[in-house]
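Morning - flavin-adenine dinucleotide inputs below, output right after.
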Amino acid sequence: MKVLLVFAHPEPRSLNGALRDVAVRELEAQGHEVRVTDLYADGWKSEVDRADFPSLTRDERLVPAAASKKAFETDTQTQDVKAEIEKLLWADTLILQFPLWWFTMPAILKGWVDRVFAYGFAYGVGEHSERRWGDRYGEGTLAGKRAMLIVTAGGWEEHYAARGVNGPIDDLLFPINHGILYYPGYDVLPPFVVYRVDRFDESGFESVAERLRERMRTLATIAPIPYRRQNGGDYLIPSMALRPDLGGADTQGFALHLEDGGAEASRKTKIA
Ligand code: FAD
């Protein structure tokens, strides 16, 4: 496999840095090719602005989606964005690794998504008509590839459980897993989440490292999260609402977009 790991931590000697090294070493030991985008080390520019669109004239109003579309179509994207797109097309598996900051990814990684997931590449793909709402949510440029998150959190696992005060981790990660990764076509694997990391010691680290090695060994075979495909007949067009006969009376919120309301996925997460 060809694996791209996008790493978003400012300190290479951090826990995240150590876990990244564990993941990369294990993947390479399995014979996979690995490339790493180290956002802080690369000085990644995270904000979308005029500098992203060199072909935009001085007087032209910046409309980010339209400018993104034009830059992608006319091959006038900046070199840093082009290089990341080339890596995404090269890789058959994408890993995003980050510490949970304010219940989501650090801004630098969001900025990588904002700039690299361009119009015509990651969104605005396929036929948009009364019959079809584009190639997205299971279809799109990155279909057939796999993606997953490696996340460290200061909070306790219980605080992220179904009734935990922070909200369930699968709900917090849904905008990333479903909205960012599934949208352009990735099969999204269950995330690898490590909790309560701020009080870690050597023995805690070794057991997590071993779990991570195991996840890296099963990257090609583990079942993806069973999100519903947009164009598989489950959603009404053009409202894009889930058909009223699907989902079951007890299922609400994000779990509606899982094929069986998430029962199977949650069983697998518990086993992992
Ligand atoms: P580090 O600080 O590098 O290390 C954590 C611990 O692991 C330390 O005790 C360190 O000694 C030990 N360690 C590091 N490397 C090794 C090694 N190789 N071997 C053994 N032990 C090691 N948490 C939440 O749950 N929810 C939030 O919303 C949230 N928001 C945050 C927002 C901000 C701005 C910040 C700064 C933190 C937030 N946190 C939150 C906590 C955050 O998720 C954790 O601090 C982070 O995940 C820790 O990862 P790290 O790589 O920075 O760890």
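Note: The CA atoms of residues 75 and 260 lie 42 Å apart.

O.
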